[in-house]
């Protein structure tokens, strides 16, 4: 068992002396106060012993024999990708989208994009064609990086109709690139391995992460190069990364966790990242921890619940003694998972709370701090968090322990999002004075631990994914039989929540099993299995406000037997 002393030895003392300027000094920086995330992740290691250290330990889908890629080799490969962008005429500031499974050249593309001063946007490969197209139309990328299979299955039918996309680069191994695409590997092999990383203003855009809202289109949260200060600091002091550690973040780079803590934080901290191309398989996961001697493991509560469901026999058949620190993110971690980790895996899981908009961990449990199972933990150094209520006179902070209110954060941390793309008003409404409004309900106990209560809107959290009901409803409403659709999340033992749709039909259509299968099949094809509803229930009509908005809150309350709350705006109420 790895017994390295934690980087954060005394939480209270460290917080008292912490400043973001101090955190910036832990990075190399560039001349004249300039900064580049890729410079901190790769270039600054090139004159140190870390250059020859393994950066990526890649496990292919059909193999568990690792392929090791050093920091120097990853840096060179990223330089080649940056040169490809330059040769294609892609200008700094333009957007590059990545739609790919976890293969090494995806990581080279992310870092090469940042080196060239472009903005990178990750997309989840399990999305269906419609969510991908919607995000492309909003963000207008100049380049789409993907694989031949994903291109043919999800992109080829519509990409020619999106004028912003000038180049589609395929990064997997090809016999021949389909018409309208370029063989990125061949271009990278032919490009120079030398590239001078662009020195960016810390406030220059670097990453665009999409997150779903309760209504309207997905929101593109924009992050800047200075976000690397938070990524590095939280990697070191929250996830307790030490140089040379074997580290495994199981999140896909298509989500913010897989970028912030699956690429940036580990590389700036000089660790070896395990990258597993395969999907979840409990026995494979335990073998990876055992064989690769994983010391720090960052995963999702959904995965932990799946491991728990499969019992204790598998983990007890493997040597997991290399694990020093385990943490989770994406949704609340139930107390049983913390206890199970300690009893079965030999270490407790440390919950961490953050959002796409925060860019990095904001509240967490730490290696040297007693865990209160079910608690989010305490704010990271440099973050002022509070519980607040909204009153007629404005935002009012709640001092009483145990009182529920909205979790709010004092703005100004480096990885705070700088805007929603094309949605300036929505961004402004995310703040009340100096406070960022998270939209999550929480309480704080007398010792300063925060406890998650729930969201105050309709966004569904399923297996760590944020799903906007509107996206799902839109696809269902396109079916000729559907008059109305309302989508909610319902509790699920493994996924946390799963999507359930309520559908009312137009006259002349029968609510039978054939129609249900047709709707579910259409949704899975368009949205992908991660987003499509698992259950569809037919209703004569759905609860609506007088203005016509489906009351998802009421659907959820009636489905789960919860109090219905205020129904004064319900159509027909009081009549």
From TrEMBL:
Example of a GO cellular component annotation carried by this entry: cytosol
Residues covered by the AMP-binding enzyme C-terminal domain: 471-549
Domain AMP-dependent synthetase/ligase: 51-421
Keyword Acetylation: yes
Keywords: Acetylation, ATP-binding, Ligase, Nucleotide-binding
Residue ranges crossing the lipid bilayer per the database entry: none
EC numbers on record: 6.2.1.1
Taxonomic lineage: Bacteria, Pseudomonadati, Pseudomonadota, Gammaproteobacteria, Halospina
SUPFAM superfamilies linked to this entry: Acetyl-CoA synthetase-like (SSF56801)
Protein name in the entry: acetate--CoA ligase
GO terms assigned for molecular function: acetate-CoA ligase activity; ATP binding
Entry superkingdom: Bacteria
Main enzyme class: ligase
GO biological process: acetyl-CoA biosynthetic process
């Amino acid at each position: 068992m790895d017994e390295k002393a934690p980087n954060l030895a005394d939480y209270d003392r460290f917080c008292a002396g912490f400043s973001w300027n101090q955190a910036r000094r832990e990075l190399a920086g560039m001349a004249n106060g300039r900064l580049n995330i890729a410079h901190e992740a790769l270039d600054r290691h090139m004159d140190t012993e870390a250059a020859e250290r393994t950066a990526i330990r890649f496990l292919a889908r059909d193999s568990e024999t690792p392929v090791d890629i050093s920091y120097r080799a990853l840096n060179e490969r990223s330089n080649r990708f940056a040169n490809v962008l330059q040769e294609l005429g892609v200008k700094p500031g333009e957007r590059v989208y990545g739609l790919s499974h976890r293969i090494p050249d995806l990581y080279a593309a992310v870092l090469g994009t940042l080196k060239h001063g472009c903005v990178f946007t990750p997309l989840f490969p399990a999305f269906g064609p419609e969510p991908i197209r919607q995000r492309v139309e909003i963000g207008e990328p100049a380049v789409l990086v993907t694989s031949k299979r994903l291109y043919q299955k999800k992109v080829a039918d519509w990409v020619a109709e999106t004028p912003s996309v000038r180049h589609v680069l395929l990064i997997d191994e090809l016999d021949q690139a389909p018409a309208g695409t370029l063989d990125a590997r061949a271009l990278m092999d032919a490009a120079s391995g030398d590239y001078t990383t662009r020195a960016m203003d810390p406030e220059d855009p670097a990453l665009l992460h999409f997150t779903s809202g309760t209504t309207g289109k997905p929101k593109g949260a924009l992050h800047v190069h200075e976000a690397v200060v938070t990524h590095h600091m939280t990697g070191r002091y929250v996830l307790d990364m030490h140089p040379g550690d074997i580290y495994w973040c199981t999140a896909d780079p298509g989500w913010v966790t897989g970028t912030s803590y699956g690429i940036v934080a580990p590389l700036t901290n000089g660790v070896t990242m395990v990258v597993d191309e395969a999907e979840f398989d409990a026995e494979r996961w335990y073998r990876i921890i055992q064989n690769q001697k994983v010391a720090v493991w960052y995963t999702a509560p959904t995965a932990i619940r799946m491991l728990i469901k499969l019992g204790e026999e598998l983990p007890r058949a493997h040597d997991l003694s290399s694990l020093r620190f385990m943490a989770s993110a994406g949704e609340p971690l139930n107390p049983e998972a913390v206890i199970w980790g300690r009893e079965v895996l030999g270490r407790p899981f440390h919950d961490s709370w953050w959002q796409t908009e925060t860019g990095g961990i904001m509240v967490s449990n730490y290696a040297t701090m007693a865990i209160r199972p079910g608690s989010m933990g305490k704010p990271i150094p440099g973050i002022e968090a509070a519980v607040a209520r909204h009153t007629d006179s404005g935002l009012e902070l709640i001092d009483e322990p145990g009182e529920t209110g909205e979790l709010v954060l004092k703005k100004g941390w480096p990885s705070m999002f700088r805007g929603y793309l094309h949605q300036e008003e929505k961004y402004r409404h995310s703040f009340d004075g100096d406070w960022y409004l998270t939209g999550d309900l929480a309480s704080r106990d007398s010792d300063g631990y925060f406890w998650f209560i729930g969201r105050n809107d309709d966004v569904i959290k399923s297996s760590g994914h944020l799903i906007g009901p509107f996206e799902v409803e839109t696809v269902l409403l396109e079916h000729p039989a559907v008059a109305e659709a309302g989508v909610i999340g319902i509790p699920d033992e493994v996924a946390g929540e799963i999507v359930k749709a309520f559908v009312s039909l137009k006259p002349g259509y029968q609510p039978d099993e054939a129609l249900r299968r047709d709707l579910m099949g259409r949704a899975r094809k368009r949205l992908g299995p991660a987003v499509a509803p698992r259950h569809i229930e037919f209703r004569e009509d759905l609860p609506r406000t007088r203005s016509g908005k489906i009351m998802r809150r009421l659907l959820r309350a009636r489905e789960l037997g919860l109090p219905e709350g205020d129904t004064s705006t319900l159509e027909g109420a009081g009549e």
